[in-house]
């Protein structure tokens, strides 16, 4: 079949970021002084009981996880409260000396992110990092492996890392459980928060709110 004269439907572009849409996660980890850090991220996927986390290596969260080998993955829903909390944590870092790349994007150091986001800590069952009470899903995890990324770019190996963690315990809000089953989630009731090209969405058509992270020029990620 000759397609030479068909209307053009695609263009070649070179976007600075490729965040096509993944769940937002609030990762909690333990600082050197025993306090708990909380940070939003969305480069994440699950396979079986394991999860891959994509993180910039200069942040407090990966430093804590590599040191303690523990973290909690707290999943916010698309409620107005959680949207406000995630936006409050965007552009903050637990690292006292803000990395240059983050400073250029407007990040600031915040020691007590729990107070800033108005969220509540809960003790975990098996590990040290706290859970976020307001998140409907909380997963206690342990580190399995680390993978240095960007090896294809000269001088950038390890600038970002992939951390494989295994989920040791899942806490879920009771109303999200599928009726008639001991250990299943009702997908009709679970409404995750989704990050798509720095904007916050739920499982509906419109934005949840104007994203704080979305104010950063995408070209700054090159």
UniProtKB/TrEMBL annotation:
Keyword set, alphabetical order: Flavoprotein
InterPro entries per the UniProt record, alphabetical: Flavin_Rdtase-like_dom (IPR002563), Flavoredoxin (IPR052174), Split_barrel_FMN-bd (IPR012349)
Keyword Flavoprotein: yes
Flavin reductase like domain ranges (all copies): 22-149
Stored Pfam families: Flavin_Reduct
Names of the cofactor(s): FMN
Signal peptide feature range: none
Any one GO molecular function term: FMN binding
Domain of life: Eukaryota
SUPFAM superfamilies named in the record: FMN-binding split barrel (SSF50475)
Family: Belongs to the flavoredoxin family.
PANTHER family reported for this sequence: FLAVOREDOXIN (PTHR43567:SF1), FLAVOREDOXIN-RELATED-RELATED (PTHR43567)
Name of the protein this chain belongs to: Flavin reductase like domain-containing protein
